[in-house]
Write a structure and sequence with these properties.
5-stranded mixed beta sheet, globular, Inositol-1-monophosphatase, alpha/beta, 33% helix, 7-stranded mixed beta sheet, D-Maltodextrin-Binding Protein, domain 2, EC 3.1.3.25, Fructose-1,6-Bisphosphatase, Chain A, domain 1, IMPase, single chain, 24% strand
C-alpha cells in the first residue's frame, strides 16, 4: 500500500508549528505509551509466538505487532482526535496511508520483528510525529533493555533522559558501519553484497547488524558507530529515529547524498555529511517502489 504525499520530508527548514501544537506534551504522551506497550512486548518476548509472513518468508508479523499498534493508535486517537496515523501493520492490512500537513503519528509497533521472534534483544517501539510533513519529535523504546531514545526538534537527543551525541570520527577508514544484509530479492542481495565488499575494500573498520533499522540509527545517535545505511526500509522504520540522529548532531540523508525522503525506502544516517559524501563514492544504489 503506497503512502501518498506531494512533498518530501525536510529535516533542516524551520516550520511555523502554531500555538495549537505542544510538541513536548505530544512526545511525553508517546513516551508513556511506548513504556506501556513495552510491557506487552516483554511479556511475549520469551513465550512461543504465532508468526505469519507478509510480503515474503522473512517479512514477519506476530500477534504482538498487531496488539501494540492497536494500543498506540487507539490511545493517541482518543487523546488527539484530529491527528492522523501511518502504522506499519494497518498499512499492510490495507488501510489508506496518507501523509498530509496535519499532525501525523508514524508508528512501527515492533521494529525488529525477526529479532522478537527469535528472542534476540534488539526490538524497538517507534513513534514519530510529523507536522507539515516535517518530523518534529520521535521516540524509540527498546523494552528488553529498557532504553528510551527520545528527541524533539531543537531540544537535543536523549537516552533514558541523558543527552547523547554522535561520534566525532569523520574518517571513513576509522569508522564502524552498520547495515543489514537480509534477502528480499536477488537484485537487492547482489547490490548489498557488492556494496559490502566495496566498503570493506575502501578500508572501513567493519560492519555490525542489529536487526532493527530504528535501533541501528539510535546507535549512530549515541556514538556507537559512525554510519548506518539501508535499502528497502519504510517510513515507519526511520521516522522516529531520524530526528534522534539529527538532534544528536548527526545527519540523515538519501543514500545518494541528497536530502532524505522518508517515502523513498532508503537512507543513510551518519556522524557527519562529509562521511556520507565519502560513503556515496563506494556504493551502488537501489531505486525501490515508494511507500
Amino acid at each position: 500500500m503506497a503512502c501518498h504525499t506531494n512533498a518530501h520530508a525536510s529535516f533542516n527548514k524551520d516550520i511555523n508549528m502554531g500555538s495549537d501544537y505542544n510538541i513536548e506534551e505530544f512526545i511525553k504522551t508517546a513516551e508513556e505509551l511506548a513504556r506501556e506497550a513495552g510491557v506487552l512486548v516483554r511479556d511475549a518476548y520469551k513465550k512461543d509466538k504465532a508468526v505469519e509472513s507478509k510480503s515474503c518468508a522473512v517479512d514477519l508479523v506476530t500477534e504482538t505487532d498487531t496488539k501494540v499498534e492497536e494500543l498506540l493508535i487507539s490511545r493517541l486517537r482518543k487523546k488527539y482526535p484530529t491527528h492522523k496515523f501511518i502504522g506499519e501493520e494497518s498499512t499492510v492490512s490495507g488501510e489508506p496511508c496518507l501523509w498530509t500537513d496535519d499532525p501525523t503519528w508514524i508508528i512501527d509497533p515492533v521494529d525488529g520483528t525477526m529479532n522478537f521472534v527469535h528472542s534476540f534483544p534488539f526490538v524497538g517501539i517507534c513513534i514519530g510525529l510529523s507536522i507539515k510533513k516535517e518530523i518534529v519529535g520521535g521516540v524509540v523504546y527498546n523494552p528488553i533493555y529498557d532504553e528510551m531514545f527520545q528527541a524533539i526538534k531543537g531540544k537535543g537527543a536523549f537516552c533514558n533522559n541523558k543527552p547523547i551525541k554522535v561520534s566525532s570520527q569523520n574518517d571513513l577508514k576509522l569508522s564502524l558501519f552498520i547495515t543489514e544484509v537480509g534477502f528480499n530479492s536477488q537484485e537487492m542481495l547482489d547490490v548489498k553484497v557488492a556494496n559490502y565488499k566495496s566498503l570493506l575494500e575502501a578500508g572501513i573498520r567493519g560492519f555490525r547488524s542489529l536487526g532493527s533499522a530504528a535501533l541501528n540509527m539510535c546507535h549512530i545517535a549515541r556514538g556507537s558507530a559512525e554510519l548506518y545505511y539501508e535499502y528497502g526500509i519504510h517510513c515507519w522504520d526511520m521516522a522516529a529515529a531520524s530526528i534522534i540522529v539529527t538532534e544528536a548532531g548527526g545527519v540523515v540523508m538519501d543514500t545518494t547524498g541528497g536530502p532524505l525522503d522518508i517515502m523513498n525506502r532508503r537512507c543513510v544516517a551518519a556522524s557527519s555529511e562529509s562521511l556520507v559524501k565519502e560513503f556515496t563514492m563506494h556504493v551502488k544504489h537501489l531505486q525501490l517502489q515508494r511507500d
